[in-house]
Amino acid sequence: MRAPSGYLLAARYRLSEPVGRGGMGTVWRAHDELLDREVAVKEVRLPLVLDEDLRAELCARTEREGRATAMVAHPSVITVFDVVTEDERPWIVMELLRARSLEQLLQDRGPLPPRETAEIGRQVLGALRAVHAKGILHRDVKPSNVLVTDDRAVLTDFGLAALEGDVSITQAGIVLGSAGYIAPERVLGAKATPSADLWSLGATLYTAVEGRGLHGRRTAAAALAALTSGEPIPMEKAGPLTPVLRGLLMIDPAARLDAVRASMMLARVAAGGTAEEPLARTAGRTVRNAATIAVPSFNRRPQHRGLHRAGSAPMPPPPLIPPPAQSMAQPPVPPPQFQQRAQRRPAEGMHRKPVSRAPEPHPLVRFVTPLIRLVLPRLLWPKELRKRR
């Protein structure tokens, strides 16, 4: 039974009007009376075929997964504020976004350009990688669960995704998800994995860029039959997105495109390139050869030393020829470089100021000087005598 408008949830969240409906619940615009802010409340309606024990178990799992989703800090992940259990069913309180779903965007505009689709896919894939790192699987990636604002794409409906993880749900014969967006292995009864979320993302991007669902089938069994028939997936408007979509929509999960490579390929297409081009182009770049880099030497004299002297010229390096054998009677001859250093150059040292010595005083001056110093005060001494002092 759906809650009426104006219902007060947990004595805090006042439901005002529904903003979206699905097979498993309704999204309400609500007002948080405690913090005085607008929020979105997801009312989860459990199937009537479930017994009391299973309903209690599903409510507990929804609360755990809701709190785990709240731990994920990513701009493309819907922010979960609270998980409330009331009237024997879970309620999920989330941020309220002024946005349209990707499904509504396709209805208003038609197929999106490949570059815009790649940017949406890149952001949604970033959200999937963030929640997968926390051990959470979405299990219901489709256009209606992707909200698109002016500057970001946000993945929603994590509360319902938690319901798929229980094995007992499969035993009850319930298959959660939308036809055309469920991975083939999940239709066959296999356990959900991160690779299944990537397949659902590929089907979502295919719908966004082609303007129609995968193979146009309305049931999961019909879509699986079309995929396993061997018919090629038609790609008419995908353009540079074709390699990404073919990699994400592989039937075999082991051969499917992984999240890291898919993220890089989507980023290239969103930047205006192709999916298979290298990340860094080295063409046109000049790489300096290591042999041309001069390495300073610390065991020999620098070549520029002494060039400031007038008339000096750089000395040539000594030849690498061993000196001739000499007899023991003759004294050893120094090498040529030491002979040149021993001979003083004509202009060497001319830049230095010559030092002049004072002339010797007259003998009479040397005799009279002690008498003058003894008799006269210092102020009356001759100028030359005061300088000598």
Layout: helices, strands, pairs:
Layout: E1 8-9, E2 13-22, E3 25-32, E4 37-44, H1 52-70, E5 80-86, E6 89-95, E7 100-101, H2 102-109, H3 114-133, E8 146-148, E9 153-155, H4 158-161, H5 167-171, H6 184-187, H7 194-210, H8 220-228, H9 242-248, H10 259-270, H11 336-342, H12 363-375, H13 383-388
Antiparallel strand pairs: 1-2, 2-3, 3-4, 4-6, 5-6, 7-8, 8-9
Helix pairs in contact: 3-7, 3-10, 7-9
TL;DR?
This protein is of the alpha+beta class and 389 residues long.
Strand order of the largest sheet: 1-2-3-4-6-5
User: How many strands, which pairing sense, and closed or not: the largest β-sheet?
Assistant: 6 strands, antiparallel
Write the CATH homologous superfamily of the domain at 8-270: Transferase(Phosphotransferase) domain 1
* Helix and strand pattern: EEEEHEEEHHEEHHHHHHHHHH
The computed structural class is: alpha+beta
The share of residues in helices is 25-40%
C-alpha-based Rg, rounded: 44 Å
Rough outline: elongated
Q: What low-confidence regions span 5 or more consecutive residues with pLDDT below 50? A: 162-173, 279-298
CATH architect. name of the domain at 8-270: Orthogonal Bundle
Classified by CATH, the class of the domain at 8-270 is Mainly Alpha
Number of helices: 13
The count of DSSP E runs of length 2 or more, i.e. the number of strands, is 9
Report what the structure shows.
This protein is α+β, with helices and mostly antiparallel strands and 389 residues long. The chain has a domain at 8-270: Transferase(Phosphotransferase), domain 1, CATH 1.10.510. The protein is 34% helix and 13% strand. It has 13 helices and 9 strands. It has helices at 52-70, 102-109, 114-133, 158-161, 167-171, 184-187, 194-210, 220-228, 242-248, 259-270, 336-342, 363-375, 383-388, and strands at residues 8-9, 13-22, 25-32, 37-44, 80-86, 89-95, 100-101, 146-148, 153-155. The strands form 2 sheets. It has a 6-stranded antiparallel sheet, with helices on one face. The protein has a 3-stranded antiparallel sheet with strand order 7-8-9. A hairpin with a 4-residue loop joins strand 8 (146-148) and strand 9. Helix 3 packs antiparallel against helix 7. The relative contact order is 0.08. Residues 162-173 and 279-298 have low confidence and may be disordered.
